[in-house]
Design brief:
CATH class of the largest domain: Alpha Beta
Order of helices and strands: HHEEEEEHHEEEEEEHEHEEEE
Number of strands: 16
Number of domains: 2
Number of helices: 6
Bound molecules: manganese (II) ion
Structural class: alpha+beta
Strand order of the largest sheet: 8-7-9-15-16
CATH superfamily of the largest domain: Creatinase/methionine aminopeptidase superfamily
Helix content: 25-40%
Largest sheet: 5 strands, antiparallel
Radius of gyration: 19 Å
């Protein structure tokens, strides 16, 4: 089990570092997500969820829909969030990158001052993560982690995103029950040796809350229900066989199903609440957001960071 976690962690840290080097002005988002997902497979794992590329005020859960034409622009604050599993054991990590060239963008209304602020915001979530990790060991209460993250991010002059949390993980389960807060709140639950946690603070200069947008490009199987439409049943069978209860992208199903029929089947599966849609999340006031994330395994006197 530990070996599988370590392998998934190594796949994610290598892929993350290779992907960071590709991020530049003009890069199509779909090229970045394809690169990450293919690399994970090439290195002997499977994507534990679609690669997320959430830009500026888009905070989480964006992945390319089929035929995505969006590109990354100079000055963008890109949050790259990627996960791999080996035998269902998951490693989850995220990093924020300010895309090169922001200093030369005076004519596009992008000042050096703004660039500095965004770099500082990236530091704030990174430092929040580092300080959270340094407090983790068996017996520590979840509220301790939340207050350390909040204090660190506030010291940088930003706010943590209150309604996004880290999470415990288990085999095949991305969110297995525990939520790891990024704000100070009453939570006396004590960590135990062997707990696997994704710690993921977000920092913003906005109001510190995210809200759902209308669209969803990431889904997961929720529960079985009788279906009368043959095609929707076929799509569902494929989803269960390939992804179990882990999140997947509609784009992944295009090798197997015709796009138009897939779209109508997916709509039906979501409407019947057989499949859960992850809505794209946006900072409520439209302000930009940074994120940092690692997966750790709790030990008696500290923790092992598997995605470092
Ligand atoms: Mn993540
Ligand atoms: Mn996560």
């Amino acid at each position: 089990m530990i070996k599988s976690y370590e392998k998934a962690g190594k796949i994610i840290s290598e892929t993350r570092e290779e992907a960071i080097k590709l991020i530049e002005d003009g890069l199509p988002i779909i090229d970045l997500v394809n690169f990450v997902e293919y690399k994970i497979i090439e290195k002997g794992g499977f994507p534990a969820f679609p690669c997320n590329v959430s830009i500026n005020e888009i905070t989480a859960h964006y992945t390319s829909p089929p035929g995505d034409e969006n590109i990354i622009n100079a000055g963008d604050l890109v949050k790259l969030d990627l996960g791999a599993h080996v035998n269902g054991y998951i490693a989850d990590s995220a990093v924020s990158v300010l895309v090169n060239g922001y200093q030369e963008l005076g004519e596009k209304n992008y000042s050096e001052e703004l660039g500095e602020k965004n770099l500082k915001m990236i530091e704030a979530s990174k430092e929040g993560l580092a300080n959270a990790i340094s407090t983790i060991r068996a017996g520590v209460e979840l509220e301790k982690i939340g207050s350390v993250v909040e204090q660190t991010i506030k010291d940088y002059g930003f706010l943590p995103v209150a309604n996004l949390t880290g999470h415990s993980m288990d085999q095949w389960i991305l969110h297995s029950g525990l939520s790891v807060p990024s704000i100070s709140e009453k939570n006396g639950h004590k960590l135990e040796e062997g707990d696997v946690l994704a710690i993921e603070p977000f920092a913003t200069d906005g109001i510190g809350y995210v809200t759902d947008m209308a669209h969803s490009h990431i889904f997961r199987f929720l529960r079985d229900k009788p279906l009368r439409v043959m095609h929707a049943q076929k799509v569902l069978n494929h989803i269960k066989k390939e992804y179990n209860i882990l999140p997947f992208a509609q784009r992944w199903l295009l090798d197997v199903f015709d796009e138009n029929r897939l779209t109508s089947s997916m709509r039906m599966l979501v409407k019947s609440r057989i499949v859960y849609p992850y809505h794209v999340l946006r900072e409520k006031s439209g302000s930009w957001v940074s994120q940092a994330e690692h997966t750790v395994i709790v030990e008696s006197d500290g923790c092992q960071i598997i995605t470092e």
